[in-house]
Design a protein that fits this description.
With 122 residues, the chain is an alpha+beta fold. The chain has a single domain, classed as Alpha-Beta Plaits. It contains two helices and four strands, in the order E-H-E-E-H-E. Strand 2 and strand 3 form a beta hairpin. The two termini are 18 Å apart.
């Protein structure tokens, strides 16, 4: 978005889910599949869940660190199942480029972009 745009405000929201991905790769499985509503939970299922969460939370913290170093005006909110990073002062394309440059892919986060018309401007 043009930084000199006087008609719209762009809000970029990055959602980092703890447990889910957009698409599971071949050989991957959702970490809670063998735990939630299962009568005979196996120790291997908990180990897999622990390894998944360790890896996933490290990836999320790395992405948050990259975005925070690239731009300093983020609103960061923690939820029970995700982290939300939002800004109205940084173009989402630059944020995606910064993450891609460090090897992150678009299936590791959800990006929502909203445009709001500034009041009083047609």
């Amino acid at each position: 978005m043009d930084s000199n745009n006087e008609t719209c405000v762009q809000r970029a929201s990055f959602i980092f889910n703890y447990f889910e991905k957009k698409e599971w790769l071949p050989g991957e499985k959702p970490p809670l599949l063998d735990i939630i509503k299962v009568k005979n939970v196996q120790p291997e299922s908990l180990r897999y869940f622990g390894e998944f969460m360790y890896t996933r939370l490290n990836r999320i913290s790395e992405m948050m660190n990259i975005l925070s170093k690239t731009h300093d005006n983020w609103a960061v909110t923690g939820w029970k199942d995700h982290i939300l990073m939002e800004t109205e002062t940084f173009d989402f394309n630059d944020a995606i480029k910064a993450l891609a440059k460090q090897g992150f892919h678009d299936d590791e986060f959800i990006l929502k972009v909203e445009y709001t018309r500034k009041w009083g401007v047609l």
